[in-house]
Design brief:
CATH superfamily of the largest domain: Sulfite Reductase Hemoprotein, domain 1
Bound molecules: siroheme, iron/sulfur cluster
Strand order of the largest sheet: 1-2-5-4-13
Helix content: 25-40%
Radius of gyration: 23 Å
Number of helices: 19
Strand content: 15-25%
């Protein structure tokens, strides 16, 4: 088990928290500050809530010796990203009445609110709860929102993967009633049964934990970027089991080479009925072997590299009644969403719409929020958030298709975008994210416009190329899994990564360091031209830059070996 080293501060906070209660409830009643006690701000994460401050206002408020403009981000837990229209309406109401008026669809198929002031937190959560929505374990050192491929046009497969995602999510929920007590005022039963966390234990996991379930050939949930993934293996039209992948993760720290993005390793295969148990055993292995001293090395990817993959698999197998079987062949073709209308079963239809960086708001010329409100009011189908921050209105019955189509047209929801923009994802970054070093959500659309011009010149406007940007190296938009990745270094400057596989099976490599707007365009435009002229049939941009040696040459020449996982160092 863990060697004896000094535990990280968060371990003490968890230990002393009385199963995630701390003094949050008391802090919520204190009116003279918009903030909570420091330790409590670590515990609220387990309840899906982050204390933040508006970074656009920080300097000015500092000059005026005012408290920072504190507010809270709240993240829902939405397994597989599926909401009913009534839940969508409830979520939207909370955004308008309790937060900054927008909904932010995330890269883990859920919704974030920004700008909730302290006094609005409890009402916001209570209102979500009446719509059977919650924020439990959306953040913190526990299993986070479980994501699943969004393929409603393949109903049997989609049903199976979302059921597994939901079963895993339920099985790995913390058992503590702290969330219900703090946010909904649930009374504690005096002398009642003593609370326990049978899977996590009283100190939960060493770090966050993320699980995905995928339906090949669609890798929209980026299985190689997750702590643990289940990949459905079909024979005929039946799912006979799941390949199990573990140890993916994106986060790293600039200048600290022993932190790195890592692509998941294949552990084996399990039948459907074993999958929830496999999830539990991988989680408990990480619980017992993960690093509780240094949070920068606490994710499962480092545990696996430290133990060695074979030893890790042996440990998981020892905990399972029946060991994992050899993995089966799996093929992925894309990570992106297929936009527009698609036919479903029994006369139903699906409509997938592009949501720029997941921000649902009324834009000039595209009143997205009002349009979605009108569709939800029709009570047609289900709203499914994708891991690319888009939205699918799924299972629209034939009787309501024309009405939905009319609203899609009226509110201009069927936006045609270039292949690059369709595959663009940006993390939130400024002004709310306390860790961002550079812009992301507010900047990527402008950069894409410039890159579209370069692509158009060489006839590649519709070519699907994945591009992802983050305001810091934590990797919330999974940039190291994109054919073009941009990672913030400092305001206006990014590290440019290229060469990941279009279908999300290979990490990218660092191509240029510290490039700004003009330099990014100058670096990519000639590559687009070469790609247009020299690509092979069906070859993706990421594969092209690797085959033609663009990445490898630069790599050797400039010795960019920092932040490389051991597999890429060799
Ligand atoms: Fe993330 C921290 C936003 C998906 C890796 N992430 C944060 C915080 C909470 C900042 C903080 O700790 O103070 C960001 C809040 C910003 C804001 O103002 O809203 C934040 N992460 C997001 C979201 C909203 C990005 C988005 O634009 O969609 C995504 C919410 C997902 C969800 O609904 O649960 C989001 N974050 C991810 C992903 C992608 C994924 O999970 O598929 C990753 C990379 C995968 C991974 O975990 O390795 C990711 N976020 C991180 C990390 C780095 C973790 C690490 O191992 O080093 C941090 C920082 C940390 O944990 O210390 C972080
Ligand atoms: Fe914030 Fe960095 Fe995540 Fe972007 S990648 S949301 S800047 S933590």
């Amino acid at each position: 088990m863990n060697e004896i080293r000094k535990l990280s501060a968060n371990e003490h906070i968890k230990t002393n928290s009385n199963l995630l209660r701390g003094t949050i409830a008391e802090g919520l009643t204190i009116g003279h500050t918009g903030a909570l006690a420091d330790d409590d701000t670590q515990l609220t994460k387990f309840h899906g809530i982050y204390q933040q401050d508006d970074r656009d206002l920080r300097a000015e408020r500092g000059k005026q010796r005012m408290e920072k403009a504190f507010s809270f981000m709240a993240r829902m837990r939405v397994p597989s990203g599926i909401l009913t229209p009534a839940q969508w309406l409830a979520a939207e109401k909370v955004a308008k009445e309790r937060a900054n008026g927008t909904l932010r669809l995330t890269t883990r198929q859920t919704i974030q609110y920004h700008g909730i002031i302290k006094s609005n937190l409890r009402p916001a959560i209570a209102e979500l709860s009446t719509a059977l929505l919650d924020t439990i374990a959306a953040c913190g050192d526990v299993n986070r929102n479980v994501v699943a491929s969004v393929d409603p046009w393949l109903p049997a497969g989609h049903k199976a993967v979302t059921r597994l995602a939901s079963d895993i999510a339920t099985h790995l929920l913390p058992r503590s009633r702290a969330w219900h007590e703090i946010w909904l005022g649930e009374e504690r039963v005096a002398g009642g049964e003593e609370e326990d966390e049978p899977i996590y234990g009283r100190t939960y996991l060493p770090r966050k934990f993320k699980i995905a379930v995928a339906l090949p050939p669609h890798n929209d949930v980026d299985v190689f970027a997750q702590d643990l993934s289940f990949v459905a293996i079909e024979k005929g039209r039946e799912i006979i089991g799941y390949n199990v992948i573990a140890g993916g993760g994106m986060g790293m720290t600039h200048g600290e080479p022993d932190t790195y993005p890592r692509s998941g390793s294949i552990l084996g295969f399990c039948p459907p009925e074993q999958a929830v148990d496999v999830a539990e055993k991988v989680v408990t292995t990480q619980r017992d072997f993960g690093d509780r001293s240094d949070r920068k090395h606490a994710r499962l990817k480092y545990t696996i590299d430290r133990m060695g993959l074979d030893a890790f698999i042996a440990e998981v197998n020892a905990r399972l009644g029946t060991p994992l079987q050899p993995a089966q062949e799996m093929v992925f073709t894309s990570t992106g969403d297929r936009l527009g209308w698609a036919k479903g079963e029994k006369g139903t239809s699906h409509f997938s719409l592009y949501v720029e960086n997941g921000r649902v708001t009324d834009l000039p010329g595209r009143p997205l929020m009002r349009g979605l409100h009108a569709i939800a009011k029709l009570d047609a189908g289900r709203f499914i958030i994708t891991a690319n921050q888009n939205l699918v209105i799924a299972d629209i019955p034939a009787s309501k298709r024309d009405a939905v189509a009319a609203l899609v047209e009226e509110y201009k929801l069927d936006q045609t975008v270039s292949g690059l923009r369709q595959n663009a994802v940006a993390c939130v970054a400024l002004p709310t994210c306390g860790l961002s070093l550079a812009e992301s959500e507010r900047y990527l659309p402008h950069l894409v416009t410039r890159l579209e011009a370069a692509l158009e010149t060489v006839g590649l406007r519709d070519k699907e190329i994945t591009i992802r940007m983050t305001g810091c190296p934590n990797g919330c938009a999974r940039p190291y899994m994109a054919e073009i990745g941009l990672v913030g270094r400092t305001p206006g400057l990014y590290n440019l990564y290229i060469g990941a596989a279009h279908e999300g099976t290979r990490l990218s490599k660092l191509y240029k360091r510290d490039v700004g707007d003009d330099a990014i365009v100058a670096a990519l435009a000639p590559l687009f031209a070469a790609y247009a002229a020299e690509r092979r049939d069906g070859e993706h941009f990421g594969d092209f830059v690797v085959r033609t040696g663009v990445v490898a040459r630069t790599h050797e020449g400039l010795d960019f070996h920092e932040n490389l996982s051991p597999e890429l160092r060799s």
